[in-house]
Design brief:
Number of helices: 17
Oligomer: single chain
Protein name: HNH endonuclease 5 domain-containing protein
Strand content: 15-25%
Domain HNH endonuclease: 30-81
Largest sheet: 6 strands, antiparallel
Distance between the termini: 55 Å
InterPro entries: HNH_5 (IPR029471)
Radius of gyration: 26 Å
Bound molecules: zinc ion
Strand order of the largest sheet: 10-13-12-11-14-15
Region (Disordered): 1-24
Structural class: alpha+beta
Shape: globular
Helix content: 25-40%
Pfam family, one: HNH_5
Number of strands: 18
Length: 481
């Protein structure tokens, strides 16, 4: 029965007879303390290469030891989770454990009775409830109603016993209680700090983890950490981590209204690549935070291009296909997912489910490249139509190109219209250089040349794009610090 479930009924899984080869052999030691794993005092840690707080689906158990994994969980991941909450609270981010994300917001209201709400802090949860940090009363004197908003109904009822409310009750007011201030919010302001050290350290950890997973030796990464922690120096972090900017026309086109054409938007991307002696890791989180991490300028190992792409939001996962119904089922599943069998049935089953769920979030990195190429060639095809504006799909494509021109300086459509032979350039282009470039035209080196105001404008646009994708641009606003 299980065999049927495994092999016939799970179209999202890769062909089980050809397991994904997604890593090179690595030296079995911890990248932080450099101790070799054993079964006594240096134990392997089941590490989320992308953090659990952002729904990371890439798990690896031979890059960090238990002690270091736990230590970085506290020193890097905890602060990262809090700093990234303005993004995760907006999204249905899948997590293995831990409470749901909540982000601090300020509220703006047009209700003159509710103006006091503007002076207190709120938490936005990812079910879009807006919870005040302390109870507050919103009076409506003409209707003789006092509305209490608090973090819970219990707290609201306690507050009801306070002197000012009791006074209103004796004057014939009715009291209503609520634990959600969303109804008063004309607009919510979320403060995001994409360049905060907590965010940058989280990104650095992803890059180091991904590089270690792909066999990059510790000596190339050692300057980024001590034996007990990743660097905490804000200036080192800022010099290592370069904000992404689309410097190529095809990337400008792709990064304009990405949510419309990118399947599964928002997604997480991690690309590890070398240009000569430079080793970089591109890290994109929720389609919004896009950065290059310059891991080394003295890399002399094998040339590298390794990619990982995953969905960033919850979607349906069919658990039943991965439940063992007999010992032989369990044995097959454990082997399939590389789960050690010297544990109880429940432990093996739990790990199998966890790994199966993680795998179901994976996306094929080449699909992004195919999408990029299709977009560019579609624009080329449309640009040559005799009466292009007569078609809805063409008008949409041209509007996208126009927006990319205004915001990011796209020249592609003008070039195509001016010179039909420009299509040949597009046909000959190497699309696998998307976000990577080549040693002579390294995208990180080019992005590094972009002025700070241009980068800031681009980052603001990305946050706005996410709000539009979630249909929240009318009520939510990001303040970027
Ligand atoms: Zn260690």
């Amino acid at each position: 029965m299980l065999m049927k479930a495994l092999y016939d009924n799970t179209p999202l899984r890769p062909n089980p007879s050809q397991p994904r080869k997604d890593r090179q052999p690595v030296t079995a030691s911890c990248y932080l303390c450099s101790k070799t794993f054993n079964n006594s005092d240096v134990l392997r840690h089941g590490e989320h290469v992308l953090q659990n707080a952002i729904g990371g689906a890439l798990i690896c158990d031979d890059i960090l030891c238990e002690a270091c994994g736990g230590r970085l969980g506290t020193s890097v991941d905890g602060a990262f989770a809090e700093a990234i909450a303005p993004l995760t609270a907006l999204l249905q981010t899948p997590r293995d454990r831990g409470s749901q994300a909540q982000a601090k917001v300020q509220l703006r209201t047009s209700d003159p009775n509710a103006k006091e709400l503007e002076s207190i802090g709120f938490l936005l949860k990812n079910d879009f409830t807006v919870v005040p940090t302390r109870p507050v009363m919103v009076p409506d004197h003409s209707a003789k109603v006092a509305r209490i908003v608090a973090s819970s109904l219990q707290q609201a009822n306690q507050f009801k016993r306070s002197r000012p409310i009791q006074d209103l009750l004796t004057r014939g007011y009715t009291v209503e209680v609520s634990d959600n201030a969303a109804a008063y919010a004309e607009r919510l302001l979320l403060t995001a700090r994409p360049g905060a050290p907590e965010i940058l350290r989280g990104i650095l950890k992803i890059a180091i983890g991904f590089a270690s997973l792909h066999g990059v030796q510790r000596r190339y990464l050692a300057h980024l950490m001590s034996h007990t922690d990743l660097t905490t120096s804000p200036s080192q972090l800022r010099s290592l981590i370069i904000p992404y900017y689309p410097v190529d026309d095809v990337e400008r086109l792709f990064e304009t209204e990405k949510h419309v054409h990118e399947d599964w938007y928002p997604t997480h991307h991690v690309y590890l690549f070398s240009h000569g002696r430079d080793l970089y890791c591109y890290v994109e989180l929720f389609g919004v935070l896009q950065n290059y991490v310059h891991l080394s300028d003295a890399y002399d190992g094998p040339q590298l291009i390794e990619k990982f792409v995953q969905k960033a939001e919850k979607w349906h996962f069919n658990e039943n296909a991965f439940i063992a119904r007999s010992p032989s089922d369990l044995d097959i599943l454990a082997k399939e997912f590389g789960v050690p069998q010297n544990q109880t049935w429940e432990q093996i089953q739990a790990q199998v489910l966890h790994r199966a769920a993680s795998r179901s979030y994976r996306l094929e990195p080449d699909e992004t490249i195919e999408k990029v190429q299709a977009l560019a060639l579609l624009l080329a095809q449309y640009a040559r139509l005799p009466n292009p504006e007569g078609f809805e799909c063409v008008r949409e494509m041209f509007a996208k190109a126009e927006a990319a021109k205004t915001q990011l300086g796209l020249r592609l459509l003008d070039d195509l219209k001016a010179n039909p032979l420009h299509v040949v350039n597009l046909l000959n282009k190497n699309y696998s250089e998307f976000r990577i470039g080549n040693p002579r035209a390294s995208r990180p080196a080019q992005a590094f040349q972009v002025s700070a105001p241009d980068v800031e404008r681009y980052v603001s646009y990305k946050f706005y794009e996410l709000l539009r994708a979630k249909g929240r641009e009318a009520e939510l606003e990001y303040q970027l610090l």
